[in-house]
Amino acid sequence: MSIQVGLETVVSEMPETVIKAKDLSYLEPVIPEIIRGTFRFPNEIRRMKKDDAAEILAERVARKALDRAGLGPSDIDYIIASNCGGRFAIPMVGGYLHHKLGFPEETPVLNIGNACASFVDACENAWNLILAGKYKRILVVTVSVWETLGGMGRIDVTDPLNAILGDGAGAAIVSTQNLKCEFLSYYSRTWGEVYDWCGCDLRPPANPGLEGAPDQPAEAVYLFGTPAFFEWWQRVGESFGINGINGALERANLTLSDLDIVIFHQPADMLYDMWIDGAEKAGLSKDKWKHTWDKYGNTANAVIPINLAEFWDDGELKKDSIMAWITIGAGGHAPTMIVKWLV
Amino acid sequence: MAKKIGLEAVVNYMPENVVKASDLDYLVPLIPPMVKDKLKFPDEVRRLKDNDAAEILAEGVSKKLLDQAELGPDDIDLIIANNCGGKYTVPMVGGYIHWKLGFTQDTPVFNLSNACASFVDACWMAWNFILAGTYKRILVATVSAWDTKGGQVRYDASDPFSYLMGDGAGAAIVSDENLICEFLAYHNRTFSEVYDLCGADIRCPLNPQLEEAAGQPEMTSYLYGTPEFMEWWQVHGKTFGIDGLRGAMEKAGLALADIDMIFMHQPADMLYTPWMDGAEEAGVAKEKWIHTWDKYGNLSNAVVPVNLAEYHEAGKLSKGDIQVWITIGAGGHAPTMVARWLG
After folding, report:
1. DSSP A165
2. Are A245 and A317 in the same domain?
3. pLDDT by residue, tens only, chain B of 343 residues
4. If exposure means fewest CB atoms within 10 Å of the residue's CB, which of A40, A102, A173, B179 is most exposed?
5. Domain boundary at A155, A181, A207, which?
6. What ipTM was assigned to the predicted interfaces of this complex?
7. Across chain B, where does the E strand assignment appear?
8. In a domain, A23, yes or no
9. How far apart are the C-alpha atoms of B223 and B216, rounded to whole Å?
């Protein structure tokens, strides 16, 4: 029998500052024609307007994960980290939390750069490191912060498409002990053709003179998505969700009818609605898709652990329920995992 | 008996354009007094002055690798990639390689972000994926490209430290078949106290008034190293090399005397010379340290595979040789591997 690997704990850490949709009304005149009528801001997002926001959230969420699991740095033998946004392009925050939490020098840190797919890909990596017998307990930390100086990437507050990004952090401990959930399968798809269509690039703000917009750096590493990206999404949107879920379920020797919950990347409601519609046509009920879009917006790499922690705390996750985690990140990385909730 | 895993092939791919130390005379007056007598420019570095340089090199090195190993994209079941420098901060070049070489959609791509430590950490990751039984043949590609627009990071042509960086790419296939070298041990140290001291940050050129460095972007993700970083290096320089060698050789069940060659990160000769001095005091002869400093400069993440390929092609690697690969990257990531050459 293969070794059971999964999450020993999962936590989220959210900034207290709330931005409401009405605070973003100055952006309405510049919503592109092509999506006017389908695009809307989340009711609320969280933001931490500090240059050190990535580091602050990384440290807090990592401490919270250790506290919740009743563990200390010496119980962790590997760290995987990712930040979307942050003041540095290099390094990512893994080293920072290693330093601040006092991990031993021999504890390795791997920073992973798969954008919004990073949490699921980090879990796959951690799973394999444990299966290989080299490590026992791995801390996975993902941080999404968008109002820093912007070495790694920042939102352009003059661009409505950027305004849907929220700050927040999620962390988990992957191990074989005291499991709250068990990994059953991993299935990856890569659409490398989107490489040039979505990401973070050095550029000026989209609408530098926009009335009502807060001050922006004249040039920064701003997020972008091209019209070609949205055309591509139109083509693959309906099949993206169901194909990912079916592929992952097949690897877990399960069927669509076994699936209880889908926890998914929430890039924008107009984008993920297509996934839900396509899956419904294949027989997957819409109410199985759980999200926090109107509370947190798009929290990038941290969506899955934030929502898992939130739904767990709210008692929405039932023992033995089968869940799919499905994501897609810039670069076209689209992993899906099937997981069984155990508690 | 443990499964033998190592490199099936390793190649490099270097731009043809050569920049000579004599081209950099204008920077000599700007060398900080504390390193005036120690800092010297490499005799030559290579440069590919193109905004797509990271993508061009990533595609070129991956194609060359597959050709040399007589393999096609269908033979590879995972890609691990990293670029230091490049037009985008996000995504990294893994998705681009996937797209341009026509990998199948179900071939995952993991982009790492451990700066100059990325190749060795990628090999460790690949080793474990194969040990776990999940993947069989993994393509690892590392690219160093500094004369792009600088979404990820670029060199500052008005900063003498920055001008040590060279462009180039190295790639390898990790597998358990047709091995030219076998991995014996991995030893990690994380010096995370350097997190804030070295990396890539949004800033203006250091000496914007410099006529010879005209044409620099006003603001971009420039490389930096603080005076505190240099002080840290003064403290750790002599022990860094020998401690890494000892730790890794001990894990391989070997002694220092068994080392034949050391392939090392070559950040600057004034920085790696203390490693060699410290190791010499412990009995490791200086001639065992292999580098191409005066030919390629600091190739960041690609130093180890570029030099391995160079020495392999030149017939300088002998069957049975014990090699150590020792690196350090921004964020304080410092992995060391021991490998036995079999080819």
Report:
1. B
2. yes
3. 578 999 999 999 999 999 999 998 899 999 988 888 888 899 999 999 999 999 999 999 999 999 999 999 999 999 999 999 999 999 999 999 999 999 999 999 999 999 999 999 999 999 999 999 999 999 999 999 999 988 899 999 999 988 899 999 999 999 999 999 999 999 999 999 999 999 998 889 999 989 888 888 888 899 999 999 999 999 999 999 999 999 999 999 999 999 999 999 999 999 999 999 999 999 999 999 999 999 999 999 999 999 999 999 999 999 999 999 999 999 999 999 999 999 8
4. A102
5. A181
6. 0.97
7. 6-13, 18-20, 44-46, 78-84, 88-90, 109-111, 138-144, 168-175, 181-190, 198-203, 220-225, 261-264, 289-290, 322-326, 333-341
8. yes
9. 13
Token reading at B192: 């995370």
Q: In this structure, what token pair is assigned to residue B196?
A: 């804030």
Q: What is the pLDDT of residues A35-64, one digit of tens each?
A: 888 899 999 999 999 999 999 999 999 999
- Taking Cα atoms as reference points, which of A333, A7, A87, A335 lies closest to residue A188? A335
Same structural domain for residues A146 and A32? yes
Supply the CATH number for residue A280's domain: 3.40.47.10
Q: Could you tell me the CA-to-CA distances from A301 to A59, A116, A143, A282, B150 in Å, in that order?
A: 16, 4, 7, 27, 23
Q: State phi, psi for A120 to the nearest 5 degrees.
A: -65, -40
Of B91, B98, B194, the CB nearest to A199: B91
Q: Domain check: are A43 and A138 in the same one? A: yes
Interface test with A, best of B202, B219, B221, B250 (most A CBs within 10 A): B202
Please tell me which of the candidates A112, A199, A330 has its beta carbon nearest to residue B110. A112
pTM: 0.98
Q: Which of A146, A164, A181 is the last residue of a domain?
A: A181
pLDDT at A9 over 80: yes
| Count of Cβ atoms closer than 10 Å to residue A343 Cβ | 11
Which is it for strands A138-144 and A78-84: parallel, antiparallel or unpaired?
A: parallel
Residues A29 and A149 both lie in one domain: yes
A81 touches chain B (CB under 8 A): no
Is position A207 within any domain? no
In this complex, the residue of A90, A114, A153 whose CB is nearest that of residue B115 is A90
Q: Is A197 contained in some domain?
A: no
Mean pLDDT of A220-237: 93
Rg of chain A over CA atoms, in angstroms? 19
Domain boundaries, position A90 = 6-181
> CA quadruple B86, B88, B89, B90: dihedral positive or negative?
negative
| pLDDT over threshold 80, residue A1 | no
Kindly report, residue by residue over A168-207, the tens digit of the pLDDT: 999 999 999 999 999 999 999 999 999 999 999 999 999 9
| Both tokens assigned to A49 | 């307007």
- Number of inter-chain CB pairs under 8 A, A vs B: 231
The answer to whether the bond into A208 is cis (omega within 30° of 0) is: no
Which domains are assigned to chain B? 6-180 (3.40.47.10), 185-341 (3.40.47.10)
Beta bridge pairs of residue B181: B7, B341
The CA–CA distances, whole Å, from A146 to A9, A50, A51 equal: 26, 9, 9
